[in-house]
Amino acid sequence: MGFNYAKEKRQFDLEWKQLQKEYTDAGMSPAAIEAMHSYDWEMFLSRRTYENHTQALPDTYLSGEIDGEQSTLFMRFSSLSVTFDEENFSEQYAWIDAIEDASLSARLSKLSEQDLELLTLYAIEGYTQTEIALLLKRNQSVISRKINRLKIFLKK
Q1: Is 58 left (phi over 0), alpha (psi -120 to 50) or beta?
Q2: Who contacts 76 (Cβ-Cβ below 8 Å, separation ≥6)?
Q3: 5-20 pLDDT, tens digit each
Q4: Burial state string for 93-108 with b = 16 or more CB within 10 A and e = fewer than 16
């Protein structure tokens, strides 16, 4: 859905009427108030431009599993579509072999089994740090430190 200019402009004007009163009551000079208004107006216009020129990725029918139900965004830009079949992976950490960046794959292969399990839970399966801590019976701060250490190691 696009940017509803009339609605957003009314909201902006109402908020600015209130802000102008607050700024005046606080003793700000009219020039300073005008400078703040100009800045906020530029941000409003920037947000309007952004909203009018972006399209969110759809969250339903991404893969076109139902005939004719694939998102028009994916039909127009087929390069956005990716296939991922878990059956292609014979073992728990086989996802490492699917990584095309050779240096990243090499760094991942140097990790211990515990680090790979942590990385799999966090990055692949989408668990939160708190959930991982409960699963592994560790403190959340320990999990957080290990994840940060892994991030640093993998960025090298």
Answers
A1: beta
A2: none
A3: 888 899 999 999 999 9
A4: bebbeeeeeeeeeebb
Distinct helix (H) and strand (E) counts, the chain: 7, 0
Confirm if 63 and 81 have CB atoms less than 8 A apart.
Answer: yes
Model-level pTM? 0.43
Higher pLDDT, 10 or 123: 10
Contact (Cβ atoms closer than 8 angstroms) between residue 2 and residue 51: yes
Closest listed residue to residue 101, CA positions, set 150, 146, 148, 155: 155
| Residue 78, token pair as written in the block | 């087929």
Evaluate if residue 1 carries a pLDDT over 70.
no
Q: How many CB atoms lie within 10 A of CB 131?
A: 15
Hey, CA dihedral for 14, 18, 24, 29, is it positive or negative?
A: negative
Mean pLDDT comparison of 27-36, 64-73, 74-83, 105-114, highest-scoring range: 27-36
